[in-house]
Design goal:
This protein is mainly α and 201 residues long. It contains eleven helices and no strands.
Length: 201
């Protein structure tokens, strides 16, 4: 049992972390058949997020890994560049590797977060930020982050642009499965933004 499993995390927070992890996984590379099957098995409720999750499950059920890989490449890789650039620096400044990335790196250092050795993308990409939030919630970088610390990180590095990115993902011309991923992400970011807004600083 690792240290993270020893720590008691509220069920609601564990569910938040699971959704952040899931978004990170879906955005870090094209899903294989196993992950598509897991997506197809998801079920939502009548909330906006629940409906978005149900929509994703329906599309995943009809998706094949080869098609999704082509979709992922068209969106994020492309010839030279994909349709979307999923980086905070790009969304906030119009350029890659700008001040938002430098600010994130210093905030990561304070929290003892490091980039995985096999990851070559700049740290301010959406998949990494989703994984960082999940890790902070469950204590992957030490003790679980307080709600205040989560709020500070979210408001600084995610809130200013992630909603825009997920809306762009929903509307992207190459998006099929990823339009549903964008829908889930946009609804989730709204919920997080509102929940953090309601917590006292």
């Amino acid at each position: 049992m690792n240290a993270a499993e020893d720590i008691s995390i509220a069920t609601e927070d564990r569910l938040r972390a699971d959704l952040y992890n899931f978004m990170g996984l879906m955005l870090s590379g094209p899903p294989d058949q196993l992950l598509l099957d897991q997506c197809a098995g998801l079920s939502g409720d009548e909330s906006e997020l629940g409906k978005a999750i149900s929509g994703l499950a329906r599309v995943a059920k009809a998706s094949k890994p080869s098609k999704v890989e082509s979709e992922f490449n068209a969106l994020f890789v492309g010839l030279g560049r994909g349709e979307l650039l999923p980086y905070a620096s790009y969304y906030l400044t119009g350029f890659l590797n700008e001040k938002p990335l430098a600010t994130l790196r210093s905030d990561m250092a304070v929290r003892t977060m490091t980039r995985a050795l096999n990851v070559y993308e700049p740290e301010d990409n959406i998949a990494s930020l989703m994984e960082m939030m999940a890790g902070m919630i469950v204590g992957r970088f030490g003790t679980p982050a307080t709600l205040d610390d989560q709020k500070t990180f979210f408001n600084k590095h995610i809130a200013p642009w992630a909603g825009h990115f997920y809306s762009d993902l929903e509307a992207a011309k190459n998006s099929i499965l990823y339009a549903s991923v964008g829908n889930v992400g946009r609804e989730f970011m709204e919920i997080e933004r509102e929940a953090f807004r309601m917590t006292a600083t």
